[in-house]
From TrEMBL:
Gene from which the chain derives: LOC110727716
A GO cellular component entry from the record: plasmodesmatal endoplasmic reticulum
Protein name as annotated: Late embryogenesis abundant protein LEA-2 subgroup domain-containing protein
Superkingdom to which the source organism belongs: Eukaryota
Topology class, membrane: Single-pass membrane protein
Family annotation (PANTHER family): NDR1_HIN1-LIKE PROTEIN 26 (PTHR31415:SF20), OS05G0367900 PROTEIN (PTHR31415)
Lineage: Eukaryota, Viridiplantae, Streptophyta, Embryophyta, Tracheophyta
Organism of origin: Chenopodium quinoa (Quinoa)
Length: 210
């Protein structure tokens, strides 16, 4: 007679227990490895502590800012902005940047895309943008506000830069972060030429939110 090998319930339970033990041990090892890698990344991040990029307006040239009707505005503005990376160990990728101008809380130019670029550690770059708005519908009260500003001899324009940035440390590149830059500028006006060419050398520090 051939011998039949029958395993007892106790033996099967022991085998199942061993499999569960191996699964738990493997899960513990993987969890520890993932936690260690994340902790290392966070440690490097906090040691480097990247600072926000800084933006300063260098020059503004207003070629056109007038109304073709009480609620239709035409504008043409050139702006030069200096972008600075204050970090010693962190580079910055600028992606999907767009610029536009607003006056009295209303957008007066279309969104102008700015080509993406990389900025090395403690580097600075000049960004130039041509902001144009032809036939933009605006509130009729905007013409009244512009007349008041001409009478006072100055006007306040706000330039906004929106996009995304990525941090670069050695060969590691972070995910993208939203960046919003607001530049409030005061332009002098002359009553002799209220709608003509305006130019202003600035040095205005912009606020940056990430």
């Amino acid at each position: 007679m051939s011998q039949i090998d029958i395993k007892s319930p106790k033996h099967c339970a022991k085998k199942g227990l061993n499999l569960n033990f191996l699964k738990k041990k493997l899960f513990k090892i993987l969890s520890t490895l993932v936690f260690s890698i994340l902790s290392l990344i966070l440690l490097i991040w906090f040691i480097l502590h990247p600072a926000k990029p800084q933006f300063i307006i260098q020059e503004i040239d207003v070629y056109q800012l007038n109304f073709s009707s009480p609620h239709i505005l035409n504008s043409s503005i050139e702006i030069t902005l200096e972008a600075r990376n204050p970090n010693q160990r962190v580079g910055i990728y600028y992606d999907e940047l767009q610029a536009y101008a607003s006056y009295k809380g209303q957008q007066i130019t279309l969104h102008t895309p700015i080509p993406p670029y990389y900025q090395g550690q403690q580097d600075s770059n000049l960004i130039s943008a041509s902001l144009v708005g032809n036939g933009l519908p605006v509130s009729p009260s905007l013409g009244y506000e512009l007349g008041r500003d001409h009478a006072s001899g100055k006007m306040i324009l706000v330039f906004k830069f929106d996009g995304r940035i990525r941090w670069k440390v050695a060969s590691w590149v972070s995910g993208s972060y939203r960046i919003n830059v607001n530049c409030v500028t005061i332009l002098p006006l002359t009553p002799l030429n209220p709608t003509g060419y305006l130019s202003s050398k600035q040095g205005t520090q912009c606020s940056t939110d990430i």
